[in-house]
Amino acid sequence: MELRARVNMMRCSHRLLCSLFLAAALFGVAAAATRRHDWDISYQFTSPDCVRKLAVTINGHTPGPTIRAVQGDTIVVNVKNSLLTENVAIHWHGIRQIGTPWADGTEGVTQCPILPGDTFAYTFVVDRPGTYMYHAHYGMQRSAGLNGMIVVEVAPGAAGDGEREPFRYDGEHTVLLNDWWHRSTYEQAAGLASVPMVWVGEPQSLLINGRGRFVNCSSSPATAASCNVTHPDCAPAVFAVVPGKTYRFRIASVTSLSALNFEIEGHEMTVVEADGHYVKPFVVKNLNIYSGETYSVLITADQDPNRNYWLASNVVSRKPATPTGTAVLAYYGGRRNSPRARPPTPPPAGPAWNDTAYRVRQSLATVAHPAHAVPPPPTSDRTILLLNTQNKIGGQIKWALNNVSFTLPHTPYLVAMKRGLLGAFDQRPPPETYAGAAAFDVYAVQGNPNATTSDAPYRLRFGSVVDVVLQNANMLAANSSETHPWHLHGHDFWVLGHGAGRFDPAVHPAAAYNLRDPIMKNTVAVHPFGWTAIRFRADNPGVWAFHCHIEAHFFMGMGIVFEEGVDRVGDLPPEIMGCGKTRGGH
Amino acid sequence: MELRARVNMMRCSHRLLCSLFLAAALFGVAAAATRRHDWDISYQFTSPDCVRKLAVTINGHTPGPTIRAVQGDTIVVNVKNSLLTENVAIHWHGIRQIGTPWADGTEGVTQCPILPGDTFAYTFVVDRPGTYMYHAHYGMQRSAGLNGMIVVEVAPGAAGDGEREPFRYDGEHTVLLNDWWHRSTYEQAAGLASVPMVWVGEPQSLLINGRGRFVNCSSSPATAASCNVTHPDCAPAVFAVVPGKTYRFRIASVTSLSALNFEIEGHEMTVVEADGHYVKPFVVKNLNIYSGETYSVLITADQDPNRNYWLASNVVSRKPATPTGTAVLAYYGGRRNSPRARPPTPPPAGPAWNDTAYRVRQSLATVAHPAHAVPPPPTSDRTILLLNTQNKIGGQIKWALNNVSFTLPHTPYLVAMKRGLLGAFDQRPPPETYAGAAAFDVYAVQGNPNATTSDAPYRLRFGSVVDVVLQNANMLAANSSETHPWHLHGHDFWVLGHGAGRFDPAVHPAAAYNLRDPIMKNTVAVHPFGWTAIRFRADNPGVWAFHCHIEAHFFMGMGIVFEEGVDRVGDLPPEIMGCGKTRGGH
């Protein structure tokens, strides 16, 4: 069914009609609605953690509104850029943009940025139910506050198609996790590009639904004048529950830097969804969640109803210098409880930040729900092995894949490739593996000399099956390796395996790949000193970024780009052009 | 000669050839050179007043390099935008852009902004000797550090044409005056647009050639961590002189807000040039200079050579909350003097900040040099009377002219008019005068209700003579009126007169206009509660902004736009397009 619709869509010449046709073909005309949103992007003074800071907002707010839709709906977001001198682009994270690759919102890849004063209409179909998010995908703008959640419900009429969800709940909450700095994203970015690098430091606060509390509010000289602990922006988020009921918490992390551990004090969580795919349920006390990931968990309000409980997010994987982010689980119906009362206990502190094994176990436990598993192709047509290293290039600290640090071109690939614009990007294929892959010591400090910067894309045969193995390694400093959450645009991939140390292509595929019930995701963690293998089918015509979702890491070159079937992409909307080699009359 | 060249140029079809032809026609082929500059615009951390702040820099520096050229030269500045998410546009303040109206650098008027990654070549002829400046002309970007000076020398072979300068000197210095805030321009702009308005406050420092000293450097909690009094960026500027010699000081003010008084301790200054025009010399102890103005003064190093002296800039016209900006006049050759020594006296404090009469006297004293006066046309074809008021529109505080607060369109006028793009701007003519002009009390708080915002331009008959009378008035608060330095792009104008109180068209032209030897300028002050009358010939095909040079005031609507002879403008370079209605394939 899906394939047929896609083929029809390829022959379609009018974009919006194609989208509608696709939606109609997949879900029946009656169910598909068009949901329109008008967003005005502007700077506003906000106080998410009680400290006043200029943020990039949607209709005056950060986070922006949650987009709610039903599977098969067409979403139209009219984005008006009311920033004064700054452009914008918004990525719909987890939405595959089948048939609408120009709506992916990735500046330099799928579109030119939206200029101040311009309005750009993002039109796309949400073809799968699940929990997703959106955020700016331009420079380090995501960190400035432009983010929010997308919730796609199962179509009411779809139950007969086997799309009924494999769990039940009485109520739902959305939880958007973030980290927050008092310094501007401009300062962060300029510091990262400086020689020597000026690091902004760990975040001042962790936010839950855009709310946190800077702990040194009045005692820090730097913020004394701009801090107001009674500001309504920083009142903690409150999640109401009724005793005995079961709730779905849809959780997304849009952090710039932090890997987080999320916990609801005293309440076990059953993990049921990851990145829009149903998980074989497993129970955790707390949930590790990396930037770009989403999960749904179920909890039952089965604790003492005469008090409230903390929601807590804690930094893991990096040595924490940021206090716990908190919100309140408020019991309604406890006779002696006020839903606004502060929980009487200290917030949960989370697991040991450096317990990598603990986090790897969660990664390995996350497999597909038996009734919803989509088996991967048994073999791949091509394997790309990507060594993730920290390098110095021209004095700057960079991240590189196989010694190539990625740079974005100024003409979007999608336009450059479709139109055959020469000189828009490096045409030489980037490396499929790294030198010395057979004996590389991922635990040692490596010189990684002769690293270069490049915007060369990986071009994939349309319809082919591609494996990518992400190999983590030691950083520039000894005994250091971080977690990198890699996010693929335009696809979900099967998570074939995670391992510690150096990946061995002669051993690990046979010994460690899960080809039976791997979960599909759009974002997956590569653990310290470890490797992660994924598989996907290159069947979505377009150009798609694949990168570490840590904002600073992508900014420093930790990403690549895939092209597949760009010749099958329909006529490009002129609105995505206007920069680089598509400037003015060119 | 000039007119003939211009007429030839109008028939010219190739832009660069036209410019070269114009230069050749005016000054002889031998004298005209092409001077190329490659500028990379980026954010850098700078410490102009010892406090670290992110600035927009040119090749890493703020201010940018002084452009030096000879009359008739062609200047080519290749501006590469290396900002991450922010566009840029640069105005060549005082250069009339005859035949190159698309190179004026005024975002929304003459070009679309330059996108990150793009390079835009500004090519123009400097047709007159004199002292000019350049600065960003986009949002409030000028305040972020993107500014510098332009010095155009008299062509060596031009002496016979009467262009020899009417004064002599032994050496020359350039002095660029500025004011400086620790808060970013984004915060300033967002605050101005807020309801209620959040005012950034008076500048923290005054800079001379980009150097100042924040007086509360280590004692201010907000800046303690980012302040370094030994940072080389904030070492005071030193101006070397040899005893007995005479020096030309070329002085420009690029302040965002402040009207300044400039003094060289113990040295009388002879004013000889204003905005590129020779002044009938007059001697001052100190010089009032408004944002957008340039002056040349001569001083003789005739004081005790065994000590140094202060250069000082002080705020006037607004109650000062910013300490004196200082630099050092260093005597070389005094036997007991070190050129690096601090002057032994306190820096000059300048005149009383609210002595308007003192400053008006300087305005009236500034008339054309007898040997270089260009007499104005005796009458005008049209008079536009512009009442400058502060208004509230939709809760926002705005500035308005005749109750119309100016907004910039997102399609540049030059492109929209040349191509006849409908809907790009308001076609209805804006008002030529204001309601109740015959009896308006400029000293009273006025309601000024029903003010509107508009981007409607004033369209002028090509070749006509236009008078504009700028009428100042009381602001929203009682007993308050500020000085507004109005700057006209694309022209010099004759300064016909200044007066106190309400301008009376039946009385003042006859009684107070100077038609004999008015100075020509591109920027002129409108004094508190007073009026200023100017005259110009609408003979430069293009679209030209005319606005208060206070960055916040233009941002809040204090400006208008003139169109003249746009049908005579040659083919527009495609590089100026790409925004608004010229976006993408449109």
From TrEMBL, chains A, B:
Keywords of the record: Copper, Disulfide bond, Metal-binding, Oxidoreductase, Repeat, Secreted, Signal
Biased composition (Pro residues): 341-350
Region annotation (Disordered) ranges: 335-354
UniProt GO cellular component terms: extracellular region
InterPro entries in the record: Cu-oxidase-like_N, Cu-oxidase_2nd, Cu-oxidase_C, Cu-oxidase_fam, Cu_oxidase_CS, Cu_oxidase_Cu_BS, Cupredoxin, CuRO_3_AAO
Catalytically driven reaction(s): 4 L-ascorbate + O2 = 4 monodehydro-L-ascorbate radical + 2 H2O
Predominant location: secreted
Oligomer and partners: Dimer.
Family, similarity comment: Belongs to the multicopper oxidase family.
Protein name, UniProt field: L-ascorbate oxidase
Protein's organism: Oryza glaberrima (African rice)
